[in-house]
Design a protein that fits this description.
Elements (H helix, E strand, L loop, with lengths): L5 E4 L3 E8 L5 E8 L1 H11 L4 E8 L2 H13 L6 E4 L5 E7 L2 E7 L23 E5 L8 H12 L4 E5 L10 H14 L2 E5 H7 L3 H8 L2 E5 L5 E5 L2 E5 L12 H15 L11 H18 L18
Parallel strand pairs: 1-4, 1-8, 2-6, 4-5, 8-9, 9-10, 10-11
Antiparallel strand pairs: 2-3, 6-7, 11-12, 12-13
Helix pairs in contact: 1-7, 3-4, 7-8
């Protein structure tokens, strides 16, 4: 397999999502999840060489996640294997979205450390994607911040804040880490929920730090902010079934468009038309995914052409 063009750095989690039981009643269905896994799989489906950087458990759940990524064509050459258990997340619908209760103490992902980082990093990787629960607490959070800092001079850094408040214990430390990483990033992606958690003034501060700030707004589409330039695009009307992983798939759609257009580079100097097309493709990919249960990304040829 060729070296991955984009490395997705962070967590692979077994999500337990609501499902009807065969005998009646409600239960949960195990599905692969985690921001890095979702983004890597979505990129692979979009025809981009993608790799996963992080820890995978050798227990049955972790093996299931590894097999899922390998079946989708995601490279695991930069993943480590651990005998510690696989992290689990219990997903339940609530007003305005999905609540995730994370069971991560002592898991393979939680104990990922600086010593586990790939060295050397793939020379063929053009971009690294960070975000999600892997940035919440040490040692994993310190490891991924260190990786971003090491790679920032050579590779494009994409940061999706993707904040999950439930597992956060050190709010000040977590906020400070996110802001340090935002200052390193070439692209920062935030959602309405992220901005609400960060509090007043967060959008202005992120906009001042990030060369390109992408603000996803669910059914309202997304906004790209670059200096004084603001570009807003709507989302198509769809029948929403499940929004889990939609942000990860937006990231993959945007990055896939840049990759196929041969515009993925550092620094990211996009003409306005190219920025519009990439933003539209990210929105379309995410909008397609929410019409099906789980983080089910469309293929490159399945994504409707962006206007």
């Amino acid at each position: 397999m060729s070296e991955p063009a984009i490395l997705c750095c962070g967590e692979a989690v077994l999500d337990l999502v609501p499902a009807a039981l065969d005998g009646g009643g409600a239960g949960f269905r195990p599905v692969p999840g985690g921001a890095a896994l979702n983004c890597a799989v979505a990129l692979a489906r979009q025809g981009v060489r993608a790799g996963f950087v992080g820890a995978l458990s050798t227990d049955p759940a972790g093996q299931r996640l590894a097999q899922h990524m390998q079946a989708e064509g995601v490279s695991l050459s930069h993943a480590i294997r651990s005998e510690r258990p696989c992290p689990l997340a219990l997903a339940q619908p609530v007003a305005g979205g999905t609540r995730f209760d994370l069971y991560d103490t002592g898991t393979a992902g939680a104990i990922y450390a600086v010593a586990d980082l790939p060295d050397p990093l793939s020379a063929g990787a053009q971009a690294l994607v960070f975000g999600g629960i892997s940035l919440i607490a040490p040692p994993a959070a310190e490891a991924f911040e260190t990786l971003a800092r090491r790679a920032a001079d050579r590779q494009l850094i994409w940061l999706d804040l993707n904040i999950r408040p439930g597992p956060v214990r050190d709010k000040a430390g977590y906020r400070a880490r996110l802001m340090r990483m935002a200052a390193l990033a070439d692209v920062v992606k935030v959602s309405d929920e992220d901005l609400h958690w960060l509090g007043p003034g967060a959008l202005d501060r992120l906009r001042a730090d990030a060369p390109l700030l992408l603000h996803t707004r669910g059914a309202q589409g997304a906004v790209a902010m670059r200096g004084v330039e603001i570009l807003a695009l709507p989302a198509p009307q769809t029948q929403e079934v499940d929004t889990v992983g939609a942000g990860d798939i937006f990231n993959a759609g945007f990055l896939a468009h840049l990759t196929h257009a041969r515009l993925l580079a550092k620094p990211l100097d996009l003409p306005e038309a190219a920025l519009r097309a990439a933003l539209a493709h990210g929105i379309r990919a995410a909008s397609d995914s929410i019409t099906r249960p789980g983080a089910d990304a469309p293929g490159w040829k399945e994504t409707p052409c962006a206007p």
